[in-house]
Design brief:
The protein is of the alpha+beta class. 19% of the residues lie in helices and 26% in strands. The protein is built from eight helices and twelve strands. A hairpin with a 2-residue loop joins strand 6 and strand 7. It is globular.
Length: 313
């Protein structure tokens, strides 16, 4: 989920299917549940794209990826100082969540990871060396944005849902949230784990210590995603940006990418509890989940003794 938001929140949508093919984004990662997956036209497209980036030997299909982590303090513009050890950890997803079953195909029970290694490069210059020499007097600071991903189960049998105390403490920079059937997150080949829709929401409100944040509550009329899409483009810095590139279309957003978003700025307080209130046109009959992304400013400092301290900005 963190990878998903990092990609759709920062990059041009055409880049996902072209420039990021080496990371595995060789087909559209945004699709409607089941309907499109089972279509013959989509099957032909996906079979072709998968064959272009893989080699087949008997019943085995092999893919090669050049995965570039873009979360954590690696987002910092500063280079990593020498004589430091950086540990990368990854959570491996269930194949039923990570993969999409193409019509009439047999999905694998597991995926073997082979020949996995890290590639790094060493860069030096007089300016860089001078910068790192300052560590003798003051620690070096790496500023970055940290992403928290929370999943909250939603109750059935009620048209008014209130989720209090989602997160407390310092006010974050951004917040995104989407609704999805819980089944999608538990591992189903024919369901998209990132297929977010309106799901009967007529009004959504984001609160900070009980008060509505700027621009909320948002009411939806006739199922139109106009304002949520507008807010998403504004929150991610794409609205009227000459450097934006291609953005999600109206149809794509409504079909499988309905993300509610907010940028915290000029709030009444710098600390507080975040809450979410929902008003539904029809009660949920199946178990639903709310996926919440919270992006906060953070920093790490490293002194000359390689002692690390984390700072909440």
């Amino acid at each position: 989920m963190a990878e998903y938001m990092s990609k759709i929140g920062n990059f041009n949508f055409q880049l996902l299917q072209s420039g990021l093919q080496t990371e595995g984004y060789f087909y559209d990662p945004l699709f409607d549940d089941g309907d499109l997956i089972a279509a013959d036209t989509l099957k032909k497209q996906w079979v072709l794209k998968r064959s272009e980036v893989s080699t087949k030997s008997g019943a085995k299909q092999r893919y090669e990826f050049a995965f570039v982590p873009n979360n954590g303090f690696l987002c910092s513009p500063e280079l990593l100082m020498k004589d430091c050890e950086l540990k990368l950890s990854f959570d491996r997803a269930n194949p039923k969540i990570a993969l999409t079953k193409i019509k009439d195909s047999t999905p694998p029970d597991k995926i073997d990871i082979l020949d996995c290694y890290a590639i790094t490069e060493y860069i030096s210059s007089p300016g860089i060396r001078s910068f790192f020499n300052t560590i003798e007097n003051i620690p070096i600071t790496y500023e970055y944005e940290e992403m928290e991903v929370l999943v909250k189960g939603l109750p059935t049998g009620t048209a008014t849902i209130q989720v209090d105390n989602i997160r407390g403490g310092n006010v974050p920079n951004y917040m995104f949230l989407g609704l999805i059937p819980s089944e999608n997150l538990q591992g189903v080949y024919a369901k998209g784990a990132t297929c977010f829709k309106q799901h009967n929401v007529e009004e959504l409100n984001i609160t900070l210590s009980g008060n509505s944040v700027s621009g909320y509550p948002v009411k939806i009329s006739h199922g139109s995603p106009t304002y949520p899409l507008h807010k998403f483009l504004d929150t991610t810095g794409r609205l009227y940006s000459v450097f934006s590139g291609k953005t999600p279309s109206f149809t794509l957003f409504k079909t499988c990418m309905w993300i509610w978003s907010h940028k915290f700025e000029a709030e009444m307080t710098s600390q507080g509890w975040i809450g979410i209130n929902l008003k539904l046109s029809t009660e949920f009959t199946a178990q639903m989940s709310m996926v919440i992304w919270i992006i906060s400013p953070n920093a790490l400092t490293i002194d000359k003794y390689h002692q690390i301290e984390r700072i909440n900005l």
